[in-house]
Specification:
253 residues; alpha/beta; Alpha/beta knot; Trp Operon Repressor, Chain A; 2 domains; five-stranded parallel beta sheet; two-stranded antiparallel sheet; 10 helices; 40% helix; elongated; binds S-adenosylmethionine
């Protein structure tokens, strides 16, 4: 997969996406990343990339032409999937990341700034608008890095073992179970006995039940769409009965 990011701050994206797990994946050739300075494609002598909106609103909008020139120069004959990071977009979730990672298409990600981008270039690029949440940031760089990071960690070769992400929150519709590492007792708090029992089947059962419990307590609405087995449903009934006896737990949340 090749990811191109068009931004006024390419160095920010380069720095983050060059580090740690994502940076190593890039060095291994799992994906290619190129960050482009939109200003380099400005057509006037001052390299101007913004102007005032026609709607009599305050603030500035990114001009269509530098973005269009950047896109044309970057993609050539290729037809990557174009994404505009935008609070107006559909909220990003793990399912959309999975789809983007498995589609095998290159991505061209546009980061807005100021009050956003001239709508005409978004229409011309047929950009999918993706939001990272119902709040507004100053620029699309953090959202673009969130998207790129989330996609790249699902590509073959980024993580050492597939089950690193298959057990994680949201991958299969549930939240992850609690995790523990050494030492076995920390500040008088021991790791649950079952995790040091060496009994594989019991540990697997504990993991599933704790996932169900975390989801039930923190994000119960996820249970409506998560794929559940009969054993899961039976365990959820047990949980409901257990927590019904403690209504104060929910009231204090
Ligand atoms: C200040 S915002 C513009 C907000 C725009 N005027 C609106 O109300 O929808 C500037 C840029 O930051 C990015 N941005 C801000 N919040 C975002 C979010 N929640 N998700 C994705 N991108 C966001 C977008 O690229 C946007 O063009």
């Amino acid at each position: 997969m090749r990811i191109d990011i068009a931004t006024l701050f390419p160095e920010i994206c380069e720095t983050y996406l060059g580090q740690s797990i994502v940076g190593r994946a890039r060095n291994k050739g799992v994906f290619e990343l190129y960050c482009h300075q939109i200003r380099d494609y400005a057509f006037d002598k001052h390299h101007r990339v913004d102007d005032t909106p026609y709607s009599e609103r305050q603030g500035m909008l990114l001009l269509a032409e530098p973005i269009w020139q950047c896109y044309k120069a970057v993609v050539g004959e290729r037809r990557p999937h174009v994404i505009y990071m935008s609070p107006r977009g559909k909220t990003l979730n793990q399912q959309r990341l999975k789809e983007l990672a498995s589609a095998g298409e290159d991505l061209f990600i546009l980061c807005g700034h100021y009050e956003g981008v001239d709508q005409r270039v978004l229409d011309k690029l047929e950009a999918e608008e993706i939001s990272v949440g119902d709040y507004v940031l100053t620029g699309g760089e953090l959202p673009a890095m969130i998207l790129a990071d989330g996609v790249v960690r699902l590509l073959d070769g980024t993580l050492s073992q597939e089950d690193c992400f298959m057990d994680e929150s949201h991958y299969s519709g549930l939240l992850e179970y609690p995790q523990y590492t050494k030492p076995q007792i920390w500040q008088d708090m021991p790791v649950p006995d079952i995790l040091v029992s060496g009994h594989h089947a019991n540990i697997m059962k504990w993991r599933r039940e704790k996932s169900l419990e975390e989801t039930y307590l923190k994000r119960p609405e996820l249970l409506e769409t998560a794929p559940l087995t009969d054993a899961d449903r039976a365990y959820l009934s047990e949980l409901r009965a257990r927590y019904e006896d403690m209504p104060e737990f929910f009231n204090n949340k």
